[in-house]
Amino acid sequence: MESAHGGAHRQERRRFLRQMALTAAAGLLPATRGHSLPRPPNVLMIAIDDLNDWVGFLRGHPDVQTPNLDRLAARSTVFRHAYCNAPVCSPSRSSALSGLSVQQTKVFDNATRPRIANPGIVFLPEHLARNGYESRLVGKIYHTYLNAVPHPAPPVTPATNLRCPGAGPGAFDWAPLDIDDSAMPDYQFTQSAIDFLGQAHAKPFFLGLGLLRTHVAWFLPRKYFDLYPEGSFRLTPWRKGDLDDVPAAGRALAFGVGENTCIASQHLKASAIRAYLASISFVDAQVGRVLDALDASIHAKSTAVILWSDNGFHLGEKLHWHKQTLWERSTRVPFTISLPGQTANGNVRQPVSLVDLMPTVLELCGNVTPPYAMAGRSLVPLLAAPATPWNYPVLMTHGQYDYAIRTARWRYIRYGNGDRELYDCGTDPHEWTNLAGDTALQPLMTRLGRLMPSQVAGAG
User: Fold this and answer.
1) Are strands 134-139 and 335-338 parallel, antiparallel or unpaired?
2) Where are the domains of the chain?
3) Which of 9, 61, 148, 427 holds its CA 20 to 30 A away from the CA of 142?
4) pLDDT less than 50: residues of the chain
5) Is 353:323 a contact under the CB 8 Å cutoff?
6) pLDDT of 28
7) Is 47 exposed, middle or buried (CB count within 10 Å of its CB: 0-12, 13-18, 19+)?
8) E-assigned strands of 31-86?
9) Which residues are annotated as catalytic?
10) 140 and 212 in contact (C-beta within 8 Å)?
11) What is the CA radius of gyration of the chain?
12) Pairing mode of beta strands 42-48, 205-211
């Protein structure tokens, strides 16, 4: 046993030194603090809408085909347990791109405009632009669509194919289309990014590429559906009576506007999962295009690549379809960082939060001074040594008063009405057994409750 431990220690030490050397070669170690680099690195940031952990490198779905995301992960530090700050688009993006908590941004829903809710908010792209960077955004970075694309669907969609009209006409719909990739907005966004990478730039650049898929509605070129013939892929696991031990507040989020009833009554589960898998593979193809362009460009050895998704997505787990819950499927997201010249893979297994995105990028970009004190913390130490102890539980917020805390083992949820859920994610990865009623675990829930905002009755 001692010999095995010693061998594991030496192996970890070698990986640590290898990663340190890699990071030092890129000029990105924290040791550069106080020293001016000749030119800070470029940053290519890829933000993907509604992509859960169904990517090959996270093994979220056994049949998903993501060769390009996987090759990026192979040369990146992969945060295997990364979580959004809110399971809704605008609150999540506003927090991730400002380094502030949802409570600080005051953006609790998609209708709230960040600069009205918090006039002092400063987003990452604009802050880098104020500090010597050329900043370019393409596609959906904030909760808006850039480049004059009004809607995340291609121009031709079946007008009568309304599978679940209770969610809004066409809002939760899908179909293969006989169109070319170039008809898709994401293809056009990616081409704009490729064109940018093909140019010389006098200043270091921040290029943000926002891909709209895998957001509903899942209208895509037929060839991506063809990757997943009917019967060739597995369905999501579920358990009868799964919500029997979930309190009323949790059940209300799960049932939402009735997507689960809609899907079940029409026997559309396999069809919907197929469409989501197709959407992932379509996005993967766009990531491959931009990676190929970067690797062929003059910026290949001077550009960090950061990829993340704003929130996860349920496909029938816990009888829910969509996001907007505080369970694992709705909050776990892909998150990778590849440093310039990096060829080795690193895996961080401790939970991290998307609120850490902005302080991490600012440190990588020559230790740019933050615009204010941030709720997030730089993940650069984990880039240098992925096994670094990192005991920072992740806070997630839904609405204004529903919260979840995720540690390496536990997920604790407390709703605004005082309802609670507790899951041992180590032994119950599907979150099928709510342990909140176990009196022996009350002290644990009290400790985790202290990590949540306290402005709600029934706190603790």
Assistant:
1) unpaired
2) 2-394, 401-460
3) 61
4) 1-37, 146-152, 156, 159-160, 456-460
5) no
6) 44
7) buried
8) 42-48, 77-79, 82-83
9) 89, 143
10) yes
11) 22
12) parallel
- Among 234, 211, 403, 382, CA closest to 315: 234
Distance in angstroms (rounded) separating the CA atoms of residues 230 and 286: 24
The answer to whether domain 2-394 has CATH 3.40.50.11810 is no
SS3 219: strand
Partners of 422 in beta bridges: 412
What would the pLDDT profile of 46-102 be if each residue is shown by its tens digit?
999 999 999 999 999 999 999 999 999 999 999 999 999 999 999 999 999 999 999
Question: What is the per-residue pLDDT across 185-197, written as a single tens digit (0 to 9) for each?
Answer: 899 999 999 999 9
| Among 84, 91, 122, residue whose Cα is nearest residue 108 | 91
Closest CA to 119 of 315, 329, 362, 372: 372
How would you write 328-360 as a 3-class SS string?
HHHHEECEEEECCCCCCCEEECCCEEHHHHHHH
410: which strand partners? 424
* Per-residue model confidence (pLDDT) at position 157: 54
State the virtual CA torsion across 195, 126, 307, 385 in degrees, nearest 10: 130
